[in-house]
Every structure is written in structure tokens, then in C-alpha cells.
Amino acid sequence: MFFIIWSLSSTRRSNRLKQTITDNATAALFILDSRGYCTFMNPAAEEMTGYSFEEMQQQTLHDMIHHKHPNGSAFEEEDCPIRKALKQKKAIRTLEEVFVRKDGSLFDVMCAVQPIVENDTISYTIIEVRDITEEKRTQQAIIESEARFRAMADNAPVIIAITDETGYFIYVNKQWIDFTGTSLKDTLSRQWTSYLHPEDREYAGQKYSKATEEGVSFRMELRMLRLDGQYRWVASTSTPRFDADGGFMGHITSIIDITEIKEAERRVKQNAELLQKLFLEVPALVGLVRAPDMQYVLANPLYRSLYGNRPLVGKSIYEAHTEREGEGFFKKIEEVFSTGKPYVGNEVSITITPTGVGSPMEAYFNLVYQPLKDLNGNVEAVLVFAIEVTELVTARSGLLAANDELSDKNNELLRINSDLDNFVYTASHDLKSPIANIEGLVIMLRDILQDKLDVEDEKVLDMVTNSINKLKGTIADLTEITKVQKELQSKVEPLRFDETLKDVLIDINGLVEETGTEIKTSFEVDAILYARKNLRSIMYNLVSNAVKYRSPDRTPEVRISTYRQDDYVVLEVADNGLGIKKEHQHKLFSMFKRLHTHVEGTGIGLYIVKRIIENNGGKIKVESDHDVGTTFRVYFKEIPVEEEV
């Protein structure tokens, strides 16, 4: 263009051709003289600047359209690159500048400056100007769009990468750099497969090649190297990019770390396998029936064994079972499907065919039909879980029969025991009168023969009197035992231990003073709820025995104390008396057993004490060392239980 115009100007030929070319040029053309004044401008230049040629000739081109910076400040001519180029006699091919229109508006231009030198002097200058305002706007829009894309990509919760048609990176977002630890520069020099686990590269390459050939999107799950040296499972989704002509340009790929999801899937699979194993090996019957076709999808070996191990899975319950086997079962499971409510049955009778052939048999099961529902609350399947209790039911039936027999025996023993109690009571009552008569006759005989009895006769009568007294004592003891048996529900009341002991000591005061016995007490528990006569009998027997069976070698000492232990109130009576040999202690609470014969007694007291205590839910223990002393501990229930025969 410049050469043509220059030729036309130099030779001044073909003015018409010149006019045609310049008038139809899309770029603005200016010709300046050596002073910088415009000597020519084409119509495009007039349209671009808003000035006519006549107006443009008033001042230099710089002062007309190039005198202001974009910020509004003055643009001095000596700073103008066009003027500098002219002074240096140099051409400028591309120069971006801002010109000023007649209306004062600024616009971006691209200039080409060609000085024409004749005789080493610039004769004139040709300037071509293109308005690039729209180009700049488009370029700025592209820059802003790219900035927005980068900001969005860098803040996206996924890794984003763009590759060219050869598989090399041309862009990665911040998440990629954070994940891999490689810089953008290093990344752009590598292919994407270099970041993959060696075992996944062949698979990924085949997938990539096929998708590229077909021009389609593709998705892969593979392992990708993280900056810490670990390979992480990722899900990669790639979409092809095409140019305006449909040519393949590469892929844009999004990558998500799915390691935790993979681990969760692994655990779910592991749990499913474990659950499957549990169902198959659990010592219970497990079956799963799905809706809506009532088909078995699971039946463990124990479940199948009830029906001769015939195939159940894949069949509906109506196909898998005979009509007799389905009695009750069909109806109940249909009810669970329709209502969505579980069914729980205990000792349910079910017809089974364990051999697969022959007659069916009845068995008993504790079972649950549990509905399994989807997120909408619809029943998807019913879990059948059962445990066979046939042996338990059979054993209980036998036990009930045995219990009935035992109850009959117990009733018979109660009658016998009652008869014995009645006999003892009656016998002791009926013997009192004859013994009283004999005792009276002996007294009368003494009175009649008062001065006629010799020593031997007196001795015989004394022996008869002693025998009568012993017999009376035995009868009294038998009467007391009978009372203990019969008084099963004695009235209880709050009783203080110190007051009960005081009452007992009144009765044995003479013996205590005669022997010089020291009585020591320590009542941590002051009172107890008990029958008055029973507590007195217990304390009387234990304290009086402690005094009676004293050691002649030391001053008698009896220590009486109470305290709490577990659920009991404990009464402890300890002495320093004769003690009891270990081999005789098991006889201590037997009826009519006396381990020391030098003291009078019937051997019935401790037996009665033990019966009273045990009848009220308590217990009694003894510790004793021969010639050291004895300790009795009575354990009272704080709330006495009623005696049961």
C-alpha cells in the first residue's frame, strides 16, 4: 500500500487511480509534510477523526489528534514516537497509540509510519491508521474471561487440567499444583500419564486413545501420585475440545480424589461379605424374601436343612414349600409385607421336612419376620430369623410333669411333717399328766417314808426325781421346737439390741455375778425389725452359753457387738471360754447334741436358734478354737423374710 502511494506521489501519475485506491481503503491514510502538517487524508481518515481535510490542515497532526494521554494529561510533541521516528528517518510497522477525535473522545489505534526520504531529507510521511477499539475491547474481554476462568478454576473443589492433542498440559489449576506439588512450568512439560500409578498407565492410555479416536468423553478411576508420595484413587472425567472447523484440540479434564469413597466401598464390600458369611454360618435359621414376587434371595444352610436341603433361592415361597409347610407361614409373611410391621413369635409350631422325603414333622421355633424398607418406607424384603427350640419345649414339658410329681411329693411330705408336729405336740401334752402324777407319787412317797428311808433309798428317790426333771425338760424342749415349726409368721417390730440384752441379763444375772463374767458391748447398729420372742431367744441362748461354757483358767469375758455387712445386720457374740474342737463343730447345731457334758442341758438350744434365724432368711456361723474361745455371728436380713416350710 505504501509503495503504491509513494509511486503515485513521486511520479504524479494516474491521479484518478490514486483517488480510487485511497478513497476505498478501510484504513485511515495521512500524508504529512516535513513540518508535520497534513497534506492529504482519505475519507476513512475523515470518518475516523471527525475532522475534514481543511480542518486538519489548521495544525500539525499531533496537535489535532495526538495531543492527549488516555488519562487526560497533555502529550508533548517531543515525546511522540511518530515524531521521534521521523527525526530518526525510521519506519514504524506497528505502533499502538490513543488518538483524539474531534468530539474529544479517545480511541485506540494501530499505526504504521513510513517516512519518504529524498536527498537525505524527509520530504513527507505516510501514516496508516487502523481503529482497534473493538479489537482492544475483545482482547480485554478475553483477558477478563480468562481471569474469571482461572479464578473459578483455582477455587473449584476439583482438579482441572487442559491438555493439547498430544496429551501435554497447557493449563492446570491451583488444586493440581497443590495435589501434585509440581510447578506450572514443570507440569506443562509433562504428559498426564506420567502422574499415574505404573499399573494404571496402560489401561489409561488405551482408554484415552479410544476416546480420542472416537471424539467422545471418557471417565476413569485410577491412582494418581500425590506430593507426599502416596498414590490416591481419583475419578477423572475428560471432555474433548474442538476448534471452529471441528478439529480435535485436546481435552479438558476434572479430577476428584475418591480415596475415601473407595475405602468406604471396600469396607462396605467387606462388611457385605462378612454379613454373607455370618448369614451362612450363624447357628440360626436365616432367610430373605424379597418383594413383590415373594422370592427367596437368601437361605442359609441351616434354613435349607429344614426342608431336606432342596433349592429355595430363586423360587417364590409358594413354589419352595408345600401347602402343609406353608400353613401359618404364608399368611404371616404376607401380613408383614402388607403392614410393614415385624412379627415376633415364641415357640411357634412349624411343619418341616428335614429328610426331604417321608412324612413332615412338627418343630418349635422362636422367630422374627423383620421388614426391610427403602428410603420411602416401602417394604423391599422380609428377613426371616429363627432359632429352633423343639428340645427346650420338649424338656419343659417333661419338667412340668416332673414338677407336678415333685409337687405331689412335697405336699405328701408337708402332710407327714404336719402329722409329726402334731404327734410331737400331742405326745408332749399327753405325757405331762402322767409325769406330773409320777412326780406327785415320788413326793408323797418321800413324805410317807420320811423317817424310814436309808441312804440307798434316798439315793434311788433322788435318781427318780432327776430322771423326772430331765424328762420334763425334754418334753418342754419338744414343745418349744413344735412352737418354732408352727409360728411361721411371727409379728415383727422395731427392737433395740441393748434393751433385749438387758432383759436377758436379768434372767442370768445370778450366773453372771457368780462367775464374775465381764460383759462388753459395742452396738454400731442400734435396732432391727424382728419378732421380740425370737430375738430374745437367740440372744439368751448365745449369751448364756458363753457364760456357762467358760474356762476355769481365766476370767470369763463375753463381747457382744452389732455391725452391717453387705445386706445383713450382724450380731456377734464372742467369748474366751472352753472353745470347740474342729472335728466336733459340725455337730454344734444338731438336735440333742451336747459337746460339753459337765454343764446340764438338753442340746436343743442352738438347734432352735438356727431354725429361728434361717426361717427369717438369715444365717449363723461359728468360729472356735479349743481352749481359746468361740465366736458366733448371726446374719439378720434387714427386712426379715417370712419363713417357708
The assigned structural class equals alpha+beta
The total of helices stands at 20
Q: How many strands appear in the DSSP assignment?
A: 22
Cα end-to-end separation: 136 Å
Q: Order of strands across the biggest sheet?
A: 2-1-5-4-3
Helix content range of the residues, please?
A: 40-55%
Low-confidence regions: 640-645
Q: How can the largest sheet be summarized?
A: 5 strands, antiparallel
Q: Based on Cα principal axes, name the global outline.
A: elongated
Q: Which value, in Å, is the CA radius of gyration?
A: 61 Å
The average pLDDT score comes to 81
How much beta, percentage-wise? Answer: 25-35%
Structure description:
The chain has 20 helices and 22 strands. The protein is of the alpha+beta class and 645 residues long. It has a 5-stranded antiparallel β-sheet with strand order 2-1-5-4-3, with helices on both faces. Strands 7-6-10-9-8 form a 5-stranded antiparallel β-sheet, with helices on both faces. Strands 12-11-15-14-13 form a 5-stranded antiparallel β-sheet, sandwiched between helices. β13 (343-352) and β14 (361-373) form a beta hairpin. α16 (455-486) packs parallel to α20, α17 (497-507) crosses α19 and α19 (532-548) packs antiparallel against α20 (605-615). It is elongated, with a radius of gyration of 61 Å.
Concise summary:
The chain is α+β, with helices and mostly antiparallel strands.
Task: Kindly list the characteristics that best describe this protein.
five-stranded antiparallel beta sheet; elongated; 645 residues; alpha+beta; 20 helices; single chain; 22 strands
